[in-house]
Amino acid sequence: MVSAAEQLAANMNFGAFAKAEELKKRLWFTLIALLVYRFGTFIPLPGVNPAAFAASFNAQSGGMLGMFNMFAGGAVERLAIFALNIMPYISASIIMQLMTSVLPTLEALKKEGEAGRKQINQYTRYLTVALAAFQAYGIAVGLESSRSAAGAVVIEPGPFFLITTVVTLVGGTLFLMWLGEQITARGVGNGTSLIIMSGIVAGLPAALGNLFDLSRQGAISVPLLLALLALMLAVVAAVVFIERAQRRLLIQYPKRQMGNKMFQGDASHLPLKLNSSGVIPPIFASSLLLLPLTAAQFAQGSGPDWLKDVVALLGRGQPLYLAVYVALILFFAFFYTAVVFNPQETADNLRKYGGFIPGIRPGAKTAEFIDYVLTRITVVGAIYLAVVCVLPEALTSVAGVRFTFGGTSLLIAVSVMMDTVAQIQSHLIAQQYEGLIKKAKLRGASTTRGR
User: Where are the domains of the chain?
Assistant: First the structure.
């Protein structure tokens, strides 16, 4: 039951939203940018036979290619100009973050503040171009050698097709990278995450329709259909619960004397999220799994034997795929948590302002305690991510139902929506504070005039 305070807060938020012109502009900008992205997923590459490619795609859509198509919002299935999506940029970000932790030069550059981060971002863009060009060339070569029952996929193979395909796919990735940065700066939410989420959400009606069609045709039973739907709802509930879960460390501040007055010691909490890394681990893991397989999937067996074996073993639902996927999720859960949260820096800040954890000596001991607690809850968060992402995959493999909309997609969609809603609420609160400050200034000015 909703309390009166919560209802009042909701009414205030609704009233504030009606007056928040800046927030409305940001929401409209975000919506238009995502519509532009969705429009681009329907623009096909030039020089490709759509019927032949559709037959080729349907033959391999049950593996990693189907998952890539889900992240790309159907752009792979239509072989659109955004077929690479924003995955090369994510892969480049992974590599740069790893290199920043290893190379002293990049680590020093990161500590330089805003200027250093801009330089690292520029290196990330250059690396994105290189990775996108590599993947685009592999796709172009694979398309030229692909044939299906409807004929050759490429109408006129040759250097011109290779060049135009590489330029188009790389240009599409760079445009999405720029569009994501614009959404982050001028819209609401994280642009890269919203682009991925919009592609996933766009495939939800088709995925549900496919399930109901399979049930109507008798391919899956009604109890299994209900179990899959119940699993989706359970995953959504688990994501909402875990993403809001926190471990709060009590922070005490000693008594302070200012002049002749003695102020009592204050107490606050240091919130540590159960899943500090958010949706980054599954996105990073999926990106790394897709990177070496993108070109191989399109090659249709024309590569070396070892490459065929790797593609087969890393097929969706295969034991090796599940093992590698879980290992990557666990690794990036700990790695990204270490990137976004520094226990030593937090302990130094607490000591600087006189705060301490009861029973723990300030300084190094506090840093060790925070790191100990953070490691323990990160274990739980990493296991939660792995279970949510792999359980639907395992169920799909056992049930024999090709269901691309699983735990990873639901995790990303729900988490990104929660983060976006939180940012909207932050804008509304800032709008209310600005209104209160303006009213206070006007009252102060009228009181001064009255005197």
Answer: 4-445
For residue 18, the tally of other CB atoms under 10 A from its CB is 9
Reference 84, options 337, 368, 287, 233; nearest CA is 287
CATH of domain 4-445: 1.10.3370.10
Tell me how far apart the alpha carbons of residues 165 and 312 are, in angstroms, rounded to a whole number: 27
First and final C-alpha spacing in the chain? 49
What was the pLDDT predicted at 352? 82
Dump pLDDT digits (tens) for 247-273: 888 888 776 666 666 556 677 888 888
Rounded to the nearest 10°, the torsion over CA 9, 14, 15, 17 is 120
Mean pLDDT, the chain, rounded, equals 78
pLDDT in tens, 293-311: 654 555 555 556 666 666 6
SS3 per-residue string spanning the chain: CCCHHHHHHHHHHHHHHHHCHHHHHHHHHHHHHHHHHHHHCCCECCCECHHHHHHHHHHHCCCHHHHHHHHCCCCCCCCECCCCCCHHHHHHHHHHHHHHHHCHHHHHHHCCCHHHHHHHHHHHHHHHHHHHHHHHHHHHHHHHCCEECCEECECCCCHHHHHHHHHHHHHHHHHHHHHHHHHHHHCCCCHHHHHHHHHHHHCHHHHHHHHHHHHHHCCCCHHHHHHHHHHHHHHHHHHHHHHHCEEEEEEECCCEEECCEEECCCEEEEEEECCCCCCHHHHHHHHHHHHHHHHHHHHCCCCCHHHHHHHHHCCCCCHHHHHHHHHHHHHHHHHHHHHHCCHHHHHHHHHHCCCECCCCCCCHHHHHHHHHHHHHHHHHHHHHHHHHHHHHHHHHHHHCCCCCCCHHHHHHHHHHHHHHHHHHHHHHHHHHHHHHHHHHHHHHHHHHHHC
Identify the residue whose tokens are 């060049």: 163
Residue labelled with tokens 């009213």: 439
Q: Locate the DSSP E strands across 157-282.
A: 246-252, 256-258, 261-263, 267-273
Which residue in the block uniquely carries the two structure tokens 């399109």? 298
Contact at 8 Å (CB) between 73 and 172?
no
Strands 261-263 and 151-152, how do they pair? Answer: unpaired
